[in-house]
Here is the input.
Amino acid sequence: MPVITTAEALDEFVTRALECDAVGVDTEFFWERTFAPILGLIQVSLGPDDCYLIDPLALKDLTRFGDLLADKGTVKILHDAQQDLAILQRSCGQEPRNIFDTRLAAGFAGLASTLSLTNLLNELLGVDLEKGEQRSNWLARPLRDSQCVYASADVAHLHQAREILLERIGDNAAWLNEELATLDTPGLYAVETPEAYFKRMRKGRSIPARARAILRECVLWRETEAAHRDRPRSHVLSDDILVAIARAEPKESADLRVVKGFSERAVQRYGRHLLGLVESAVATDPATWPVPDPQAKDYDLLQERTKLALAAIKPRAEEVRVDSALMGARAAIQKVILMGESADPAD
Here is the structure.
């Protein structure tokens, strides 16, 4: 399979790709010692078994590939698309458009919407993907032949999978199109802000508002520090440690030293700054403190009610051959349950 390593070859390839109705896309990345994943390879198929590899390490500038990514006239077929598209947008600088996610499509074709690509291709085509290079270092060069074969296989069958899924989906096509349209949402693949990370954190959701104010300041600092140093979050301070600091509300270094998991080295490196963050957080207007997440309260009861709601949906989902996880998303169901609990009985 051809490997594209020059700007001229990339331009020629994208020109060809833009003439296609659909292209298959996948990525290989490396994410062990950095804050964000590093793109190691882009795989694109223009048709069944017509595969190309794009080397982002050789090219540096992927703006031209972004033209394909953002083109509204060419369908981009991916499996479980969001992480790949977030990495590609960050690398190419353009927002993806016209996405067909085979994982989502499977959920409207009488299959589970959680199937891996390996299991989906086996179900639809009887194809068994090799897994020998799953843990490869995709930043090492030159690429081995086995890596190229493995990477190409991930896109070689995407066109056929899409065709079969569309045939099976039939009357559910409108529902699928509605779901796929959400993948074109502007800003969906943007780099996550520190504030956004704090809001989606599962740890510390139920702690009191005063402690959550401390946690927010600590998280915002940690996100900025980790991004600046280009290190994983846990290599700075883990979520668990930040929650423990927020609960303890330390006032001096000795208080930090008894926080579980907080090393002496971390005390020396970050202690003074963290104590300043704690002090400034509690000094702010309590009206601005983030309140505990209502979903974190009575968690077990919420989960049980959610389970019952999903079970109630399942017969109808089976009748129309749609995965119940798509018909009633867990988050949406929980939101309805919480709205019901907060409603005034007199209304």
